[in-house]
Specification:
Elements: E1 3-8, E2 11-16, H1 26-41, E3 47-52, H2 75-83, E4 89-93, E5 96-98, H3 100-107, E6 110-114, E7 118-120, H4 134-142, H5 144-153, E8 157-158, H6 159-165, E9 170-172, H7 176-186, H8 207-217, H9 226-239, H10 242-258, H11 260-274, E10 293-296, H12 300-311, E11 316-319, H13 323-342, H14 348-355, E12 358-361, E13 372-375, H15 381-394, E14 400-403, H16 410-415, E15 423-428, E16 437-441, H17 448-460, E17 464-468, H18 476-493, H19 497-507, H20 513-520, H21 522-530, H22 539-550, E18 563-564, E19 573-574, H23 576-588, H24 598-618, H25 625-635, H26 644-652, H27 654-668, H28 677-684, H29 689-697
Parallel strand pairs: 2-3, 3-4, 4-6, 5-7, 6-9, 10-11, 10-13, 11-12, 13-14, 14-15, 16-17
Antiparallel strand pairs: 1-2, 7-8, 15-16, 18-19
Helix pairs in contact: 1-2, 2-3, 3-4, 4-5, 4-9, 5-9, 9-10, 11-25, 11-26, 12-13, 18-22, 18-24, 19-24, 22-23, 24-27, 25-26, 26-27, 27-28
This protein binds nicotinamide-adenine-dinucleotide (NAD).
Nicotinamide-adenine-dinucleotide binds near residues 300, 301, 321, 383 and 387.
């Protein structure tokens, strides 16, 4: 029995017991409704408590039922059934009351919670809205501002804050069930207090109030469908009686459900949880203990990487070649912490405590007691090999040796040591203390214990760790090159740089590719190309950029790149100088420049990602398409509401995508556009990347 009933004198206690999180499965919904109706009819029962066993109150819908046809009783009916009861109903909350769980609690007449409890309506994160009265009852009890805050952010609200809002009537340190029974007893005389019957003062919350709120969240929610629907629900709650408000909520809920964003965001939710499932690794795989970490190189990446470990309370030794580089690196770390402290997000004591975990050295011998050592020195094979040879000589037995290389062959680096099984890639993203993504590069000989340890460690330091195979650029950067190539080709063929940027920005990227290039510095790619054979890249995409760099326009850092920048400004302005170069280069290539639609630009840039993603997947360099989506959403700003490039391709239909790629291959005649064999195979068999993932998971 997932829901049971116990009578304690005049009080009936309805208990949910559906581990692990008491999710609102069909059995739970049915059990609650059946018992609540029975209690309402039972004259011996004077008041009711709804409580949960195990570690939490009801923490949301049952994700196992996602996508299946809904089965009665539906949650809105259960919730209404609770609110309509003729005797007081009290919710006893511990752990988290989330989503549908909070909607159940809101339909109870009173709420008692442990001080450690949290509440929240996170539906917006899944592209939907609280559709069982949450948008109507929450503003009635908590006030419109608090409801907007909670429902639009989807954040967890601590019980103390929820109590201030009026959502929790009583906070207790322990024995929440006893407190709820006591409250139920005390409320018998008073009777029910129905949230749905409360009214909101509509004179305060007029059009201008909501318009102001919309403006305040516009940047954060750009492109997202559900937040606006949440606001419309709350607007309805202000002016409509409960019944009509609920109807409006239902309509807007259905709009969200039918929007592709709901599927995309739910895909991302599951994709995030899949990444740590790795073939050949399970709970029984041994792990190594990581108590101390060494970092080699305290440049852009090294310092940020080190901060992750210090933040998790793990001591770090930073090694540099020269004292001034070490001082500079440690100085940047301190400045970062000080900045966080200035924003009030860290106390000065905490800053000192974290800095105390740092140790600087110029001597490799000081790394001999480290359990994990991450190399983040210059990106050349020669230097990396030197560093790994030195490491091999000093690192203790069983230490994990990692490289933060962006492109170099990890197998080759591992082979220079006498312990290739202990070597892997840990590819952090810049800024390493901020970006959530970590590519964990499994080399040919990497020991499963080493991999398992790093997968766990990623979680410990708050990263989403995605396993990639050894190939040039791993998952993310390998795909990125194709994206930039198409963006740049669009320019040389006739689009203006700002048009390419606008197209990708409107698609949902945080910044267009030209702005990103200026920010990263155009000289990086330039230097990289100088070391390559011209046959290995698309020169028509890069020659104009080379000329831009050669004019000393290296990007934002020097105040000029693809765009002009006013002194001290980061706002890109179209550059006549660069346009002249682009036009000359187009002419040199015999290209008759012609305008491009935003749709065309997006199609080329995004399908270039998809085609390369399919190659990566087909080669086994990523375990699943959804891992690629996680990489792109967390490391490259691909809009989560589009579900990552591979999910987006599924949304377009792989047959369509394949035909488009074939069309590009024919039109441009370039080997870059050769369709990925896996894309062809899936398109021809009418399958999607999601189906490929499911079949491979068996
Ligand atoms: P950086 O030039 O900012 O820093 C490299 C540091 O390594 C310098 O401080 C240098 O003094 C030090 N160093 C050089 N040789 C050394 C040696 N033999 N022993 C000890 N220290 C040495 O470079 P970065 O941007 O931090 O990149 C480091 C690595 O991280 C590269 O492999 C790069 O490809 C990779 N990476 C960079 C980024 C990025 O955005 N910058 C992102 C991901 C990965």
């Amino acid at each position: 029995m997932v829901v049971s009933l116990e009578k304690r004198g005049e009080i009936a206690v309805i208990s949910v017991n559906n581990p692990p999180v008491n999710a609102l499965s069909h059995g739970v919904r049915d059990g609650i409704l059946t018992h609540i109706q029975a209690c309402d009819a039972d004259e011996a029962v004077k008041a009711i408590v709804i409580a949960c066993e195990g570690r939490t109150f009801i923490a949301g819908a049952d994700i196992k039922e996602f996508g299946a046809p809904p089965k009665a009783p539906h949650l809105p009916d259960v919730v209404q059934g609770i609110e309509d009861v003729s005797k007081p109903v009290v919710a006893a909350i511990h752990g988290t009351a989330l989503g549908g769980g909070l909607e159940v609690a809101l339909s109870c007449h009173y709420r008692v919670a442990l001080t450690s409890a949290k509440i929240g309506l996170p539906e917006v994160k899944l592209g939907i809205l609280p559709g069982a009265g949450g948008t109507q009852r929450f503003p009635r009890i908590a006030g419109v501002e608090n409801a907007l805050d909670a429902i639009i952010s989807g954040r967890h609200v601590k019980a103390a804050e929820a109590a201030k809002w009026g959502v929790i009537d009583q906070l207790v340190e322990d024995n929440v069930l006893d407190a709820a029974i006591a409250m139920a007893t005390a409320k018998i005389a008073e009777g029910p207090r129905r949230t749905g019957e409360m009214e909101i003062d509509s004179s305060v919350y007029d059009q201008s109030f909501f318009d102001g709120f919309r403006k305040s969240i516009a940047r954060k929610t750009r492109g997202y469908f559900a937040p606006e629907r949440c606001i419309r629900c709350i607007e309805a709650a202000v002016v409509l009686p409960l019944k009509e408000g609920l109807q409006r909520e239902r309509e807007l809920f259905m709009e969200c459900m039918q929007n592709p964003q709901a599927r995309a965001l739910q895909h991302m939710f599951f994709a995030d949880r899949q990444v740590s499932r790795i073939p050949g690794i399970d709970k029984t795989t041994p792990r190594r203990e990581i108590k101390k970490v060494g970092i080699i190189g305290a440049g852009t990446m090294g310092g940020g990487i080190a901060m992750n470990f210090a933040n998790a309370g793990i001591p770090v030794t930073l090694l540099e070649v020269q004292q001034d580089a070490l001082d500079r690196g440690l100085g940047v770390v301190r400045k970062n912490y000080d900045r966080t402290a200035a924003k009030g997000k860290l106390t000065t004591e905490a800053v000192e405590a974290r800095m105390a975990l740092f140790n600087g050295t110029l001597d490799y011998a000081d790394l001999s007691d480290c359990d994990l050592i991450i190399e983040a020195v210059f990106e050349t094979m020669e230097i990396k090999k030197k560093v790994f040879s030195s490491l091999d000589a000093v690192a203790k037995e069983g230490a994990i040796l990692a490289t933060n290389t962006s492109y170099l062959n990890v197998d080759e680096i591992a082979a220079i040591t006498k312990r290739p099984a202990d070597v892997l890639g840990l590819h952090f993203f810049s800024p390493a203390n901020v970006m959530r993504l970590l590519e964990i590069v499994r080399a040919e000989k990497t020991d499963p214990a080493v991999l398992a340890t790093c997968v766990d460690l990623a979680k410990k330091i708050g990263k989403v760790g995605v396993v990639a195979g050894v190939c040039h650029g791993f998952i993310g950067n390998r795909m990125l090159g194709h994206y930039f190539r198409e963006a740049s080709l669009s320019v040389i063929e006739g689009a203006l740089p700002e048009e390419v940027d606008a197209a990708m920005f409107d698609f949902g990227m945080p910044m267009g590719p030209m702005t990103v290039s200026d920010m990263a510095g155009l000289d990086i790619g330039y230097l990289n190309r100088k070391g390559m054979d011209r046959a290995d890249y698309e020169t028509s995409a890069t020659d104009w950029m080379d000329r831009v760099v050669e004019m000393d326009r290296k990007g934002l850092k020097v105040g000029a790149g693809i765009y002009d920048y006013d002194e001290g400004s980061r706002t890109p302005k179209p550059s006549a100088t660069v346009m002249a170069i682009i036009e000359e280069e187009s002419a040199k290539l015999g290209i008759a420049r012609e305008g491009k639609t935003a749709e065309e630009i997006v199609e080329r840039c995004v399908l270039a990602l998809v085609n390369e993603g399919a190659k990566i997947l087909g080669e086994g360099m990523a375990y699943r398409a959804s891992d690629i989506d996680v990489v792109y959403a967390n490391g490259y700003g691909f809009p989560p509401y589009r579900g990552g490039p591979m999910h987006y391709a599924d949304h377009l239909g792989l047959k369509n995508v394949y035909e488009k790629v074939c069309g590009f291959a024919e039109k441009y005649g370039k080997r870059w556009w050769k369709p990925a064999p896996l894309l062809k195979e899936l398109a021809e068999s009418g399958k999607s990347f999601a189906e490929y993932d499911r079949e491979n998971a068996k």
